[in-house]
Amino acid sequence: MTLDTSRYPMTLDLDGDKIDIRLMTPEDKEAVSAFAADLPPHDLLFLRRNISEPKVMAAWARDIDEGAIHSLVAMKGDKVVGTTAVVRDEYSWSPHLGELRVLVATDMRKNGLGRKLIEESFVMALGLELEKLIAQMTVDQRGAIEVFETMGFTGEALLKDHVKDQAGEKHDIVILALDVARADAQNALFGTAELAD
Question: What are the C-alpha distances in Å from 176 to residues 53, 69, 98, 152, 157?
Answer without folding.
Answer: 26, 19, 12, 9, 7
